[in-house]
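Record filed below.
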Amino acid sequence: MKVLEEAGHTDEEEDKVSEFSDKQKDVENILYENKIYKFSKKNNCFTYYWMVIVDQEIHHYKEPLKKTLIKISNINGCFVKENGSETKKGDKYYSFSIIYGGKQVTYYTKDRQEAKVWTKNIREAIGYKNFFDFYEIIDEVSMGKELYNENWN
């Protein structure tokens, strides 16, 4: 940061400015964030997280203020699917799963629309495209066994 050096600022001040700009960059790249639940089979209860989609990563925090980062998951190359509703502990939850290679992680929301918003935003983050969004299949075209034999024998 040449401007800071010319103004007589120290390296420590430069690091603080750089750290602030990195955090600001993360804020600008947030695609979606909201409360999410995971079910612990071990404890037989739900755990609340604040989940944030930043570029092609999912950041898990303990609280909405984002002071305590639990983990970061890269979602590049993953798949996402909506699972529908489940009743657990007497309450209805709507779930979706993210499949990372061979590992599937299921997340829960209390609202169907919220689960749809999560899957839509995760698909957007990973660059998911549906074939049928771009093309319409009008007629099935195939070269059956009989047609193949007539033309090539």
Q: What stands out?
A: The chain has one domain: 2-129. Confidence is low (pLDDT under 50) at residues 1-10.
